[in-house]
Amino acid sequence: MKVGEFATTGVITADSSHTVAQAAKLMRDHHVGDLVLHEPGDRTAQPIGIVTDRDLVVGVIGLGLDPSVFTLGDILQTPLHTAVVDEDVDVVISRMRVLGIRRVPVVDAHGHLTGIFTMDDYLRYLGRQLQSLTDLVQNERTREQDSRVVIT
Q1: What is the pLDDT of residue 152?
Q2: What is the C-alpha separation between 7 and 121, in angstroms, rounded?
Q3: What DSSP designation does 67 have?
Q4: What's the CA gap between 131 and 144, in Å, rounded?
Q5: How much is the pLDDT for 43?
Q6: What confidence score (pLDDT) does residue 59 get?
Q7: What confidence score (pLDDT) does residue 41 get?
Q8: Peptide bond before 105: cis, by omega within 30 degrees of 0?
Q9: In terms of pTM, does the model score above 0.90?
């Protein structure tokens, strides 16, 4: 399966000149835990980084720094790891495991943002698959019970 099949579209983005305080408000307003960053004024949707709520708390607020002074560009960690929309999901997950990251922006062949793939997305899929298998076993039992001939 391709990673693009699991990616969440409608990604919330911010430019790297936003302050940490602005980013926190954006995350709160959109109920998300990360923002994909682009260069100020860039409308091509080419991601340059990702910032998580944990980055804001641990990297700025937890150090007692002023979130209205520091920009996302100040705390941006590089390099950005992305996945191409048609990459095999197992390959992407293996790369994420090795890198120790839980989220990757998904891009098209030109590097334009198409979505974001998170471990939560994949775990949701696996949960549905496991539920289907559980349902199969239950349905098999029901079918077997319904088809048994009662001997008297």
Answers
A1: 66
A2: 7
A3: T
A4: 20
A5: 66
A6: 92
A7: 80
A8: no
A9: no
On the question of pLDDT at 151 being above 80, the answer is: no
Length of the chain: 152
Quick one: tokens of 59?
């990297």
76 token code pair: 């941006």
Kindly state the tokens that stand for 149: 């001939």
The amino acid present at 121, given as its one-letter code, is: D
Measure the CA angle with vertex 28, ends 22 and 34; round to 5°.
Answer: 80
Q: What is the DSSP letter of 144?
A: H
pLDDT at 119 over 80: yes
d(CA 128, CA 21): 37
Burial letters 119-134, b for 16+ CB under 10 A, else e? eebbeeeeeeeeeeee
**Structural tokens at position 30:** 């959109």
